[in-house]
Design brief:
This protein is of the alpha+beta class. The protein has five domains: 100 residues, 3-Layer(aba) Sandwich (Rossmann fold), CATH 3.40.50; 74 residues, ATP-grasp fold, A domain (Dna Ligase, domain 1); 246 residues, D-amino Acid Aminotransferase, Chain A, domain 1 (2-Layer Sandwich), CATH 3.30.470; 117 residues, Glycoprotein, Type 4 Pilin, CATH 3.30.700.30; 69 residues, OB fold (Dihydrolipoamide Acetyltransferase, E2P) (Beta Barrel). 27% of the residues lie in helices and 33% in strands. The chain contains 17 helices and 39 strands. It comes from Corallococcus aberystwythensis. InterPro entries: ATP-grasp, BC-like_N, Biotin_BS, Biotin_carboxylase_complex, Biotin_carboxylation_dom, Biotin_COase_C, Biotin_lipoyl, CPAse_ATP-bd. This is Acetyl-CoA carboxylase biotin carboxylase subunit. GO terms for molecular function: ATP binding; ligase activity; metal ion binding.
Length: 670
């Protein structure tokens, strides 16, 4: 008998929207939940009804089991779908749902608990004859996981070595160690990060397999003894051990290898009595050997690539299995067509070490076209806050072959319009166009090998011609605004009763400043000088915040939007933010450090490692700030004495907030 009629989605953002859409397609009533920060979010508007959970911090809203269950009870929901992240892999939540007579759209609590701990999961997989990475898990009685024991066992295993948090995921609490002398610091750092992120500092060690690929297998099981796999996904392009681009099938997996990996993955879930959707993650060595890493007991972020090549709706499968139905298909009935690639669009700045970014979305226009799918949960005018994950959307392309999918995804990224918040779009385009990715011969070291900091810093750097176009566009937009305010014909823009004088402007692109001289020579024509180079161009409006630029007979389209003195633009698919600093006071220009340590973004203080009167050296970590699931260490800007500490653990601070002051000599802070 059918039990599920009304589903509460205990999540937010794009995954909440994704789940809600399948529920609506199946005729199920839906309930959304939201924090104060998400009152006007798309997932709230999409659901049949929505219930407020609490303040923005996740622990007071989306992570509160008590509040989520109260919302489900108040709404009359039959089932709760946790999405991914938040409570999706929390065994206490799964048990609480069952005890409150809600259908939990996920695996049994016992499976979540077992596989949620990398140490216990690995021991169980070893017992099930699933190949595992050699390492140290304190498997025998009396063995220790304390720092000293890990250092000793690390020396035995050899280097390079991975230090990994037993709990959680997302690359947190993970360190690659290449030298024996760096092991103890890596253990202490990983343990601290894991404790803050997951409430557990338990660690394991694993041999680092050089040149390996991260390949995972999608699995499904029901309550009737059926279990299948739905092929593999290659997730090797990662930054900070977090996935950026995923594809299916993997370029490195042959049909024979797929059959072997799939059989082992199914063997693994049968060994633990699993039910629902899950993912068995493997490291695939260059010689074709593969090793179990961990299991994710939920739907994965990258599940759309599997959906596109199988033609299946995995959320629908989750709901049917949770309702007691058998799997919709047997293994022989599952087929694969074409190739799919997904890119995670994140609010982050690759040039600044992938630092999370916040702000208001001034423009959001997702791409469309054959084979293109965009999963997102944002809208124009929405604030991107520091309280949740930096991923805002997923762009997925499907085609009959890998190259078609790659080209379609690259074109979709060029078409995407997202202004107001810096994203990793240019970085993704760089990866898709890189020869190592195009060839399919890449591994988990791709980002480190092919996009070092100097490369990241130069991505999207404007040419002199681009700088001239943007300077003229800024000038032209100012002139049009003046015409509108003054009520005169826009055709008079740039008109002068005498010889038109060049207008100097100074623009800052977030990393550097350049100066230009703009001289209008006709209503839509300009001469722009950048240094010793002169560029003649014409600008023709194509509608609201769109223009066509012509330079030396070559025409290019540009999309743009102004926000005060900042110009956001997309030229040839590269999004840039330029700030007019022409009238900035000289005192605000770059200058030597004044000793003030400022927060680089909005975030929560999770550690204060200093106090007033402490003597510090330049580079010492004084404060650790967390935003969008990323920790940032704030270091002393100079040698000296700490003369002020303006934060405490748990405090939420805005970007540019002075968290501490270091003075060359002990004296009262200015």
């Amino acid at each position: 008998m059918k039990r599920i009629h009304k589903v509460l989605v205990a999540n937010r953002g794009e995954i909440a929207v994704r789940v809600l859409r399948t529920c609506r397609r199946l005729g199920l009533r839906t309930v959304a939940v939201f924090s104060d920060a998400d009152r006007e979010a798309p997932h709230v508007r999409l659901a049949d009804e929505a219930i407020h959970l609490g303040p923005p911090p996740a622990r007071e809203s989306y992570l509160s089991i008590e509040r989520v269950l109260a919302a489900a009870k108040a709404s009359g929901a039959d089932a709760i779908h946790p999405g991914y992240g938040f409570l999706s892999e929390n065994e206490d939540f799964a048990r609480a749902c069952a005890e409150a007579n809600f259908v939990f759209v996920g695996p049994p609590a016992e499976a979540i608990e077992l596989m949620g701990n990398k140490r216990q999961a690995k021991l169980r997989m070893q017992a099930a004859d699933v190949p595992c990475i050699p390492g140290y898990e304190a498997a025998r009685p009396g063995e220790s996981l304390e720092d000293e024991a890990l250092v000793r066992e690390g020396q035995r295993i050899g280097f390079p070595l991975m230090v990994k948090a037993a709990a959680g995921g997302g690359g947190r609490g993970m360190r690659l160690v290449r030298e024996p002398g760096a092991l103890l610091d890596a253990i202490r750092s990983a343990r601290s990060e894991a404790t803050n992120a997951f409430g557990s500092g338990e660690l394991i060690l694993e041999r680092a397999i050089e040149g390996a690929r991260h390949v995972e297998v999608q699995v499904f099981a029901d309550a009737h003894g059926n279990a299948v796999h739905l092929g593999e996904r290659d997730c090797s392009v990662q930054r900070r051990h977090q996935k950026v681009i995923e594809e299916s099938p993997s370029p490195a997996v042959t049909p024979e290898l797929r059959e072997r990996m799939g059989a082992v993955a199914v063997q693994a879930i049968r060994a633990i009595g699993y039910r629902g959707a899950g993912t068995i993650e493997f490291l695939l060595a260059p010689n074709g050997d593969f090793f179990f890493m961990e299991m994710n007991t939920r739907l994965q972020v990258e599940h759309p690539v599997t959906e596109l090549i199988t033609g299946l709706d995995l959320v629908e499968w989750q709901l049917r299995v949770a309702d007691g139905e058998p799997l919709p298909r047997t293994q022989p009935e599952i087929t694969f067509q074409g190739h799919a690639i997904e890119a995670r669009l994140c609010a982050e700045d690759p040039a600044k070490g992938f630092l999370p970014q916040t702000g208001r979305l001034l423009a959001w226009v997702p791409p469309a076209g054959e084979g293109i799918r965009v999963d997102h949960g944002v809208r124009e005018g929405q604030d991107i806050t520091p309280f949740y994950d930096s991923m805002q959307a997923k762009l997925i392309a499907h085609g009959p072959d890998r190259e078609t999918a790659r080209e379609r995804l690259a074109a979709a990224l060029r078409e995407l319009t997202v202004f107001g918040v810096t994203t990793n779009s240019t970085f993704i385009q760089h990866v898709l166009g890189h020869e190592a990715f195009r060839s399919g011969r890449y591994d988990t070291g791709f980002v480190g090998a092919h996009t070092p900091p100097e490369t990241l810093g130069g991505l999207g750097q404007a040419s002199v011609e681009d700088q001239a176009i943007l300077a003229a566009l800024l000038f032209h937009d100012d002139a049009l605004a003046l015409a509108r305010r003054g009520g005169f014909d826009a055709a008079l823009t740039g008109w002068s009763s005498s010889y038109a004088l060049p207008v100097p402007v100074a623009l800052h692109d977030g990393t550097s400043e350049f100066r230009a001289s703009v001289r209008p020579v006709a209503p839509e024509a300009y001469d722009v000088r950048i240094g010793d180079t002169s560029v003649s161009l014409s600008l023709r409006g194509l509608g609201a915040e769109r223009a066509e630029v012509e330079v030396a007979g070559r025409r290019r389209a540009v999309r743009y939007r102004r926000a005060g003195g900042t110009l956001w633009s997309s030229l040839d698919g590269i999004t840039r933010s330029l700030r007019d600093v022409s009238f900035r006071a000289p005192s605000e220009r770059e200058r030597a450090s004044d000793g003030r340590l400022r927060a680089p973004m909005d975030g929560r203080i999770i550690r204060v490692s200093t106090q007033v009167g402490a003597t510090v050296k330049k580079g010492d970590v004084l404060v650790v700030l967390e935003a969008m699931k990323m920790e940032s260490s704030l270091i002393a800007p100079t040698d000296g004495v700490v003369t002020a500490v303006n934060v405490t653990v748990g405090a939420q601070v805005p970007a540019r907030h002075v968290v501490a002051v270091v003075s060359p000599e002990a004296k009262e802070a200015a």
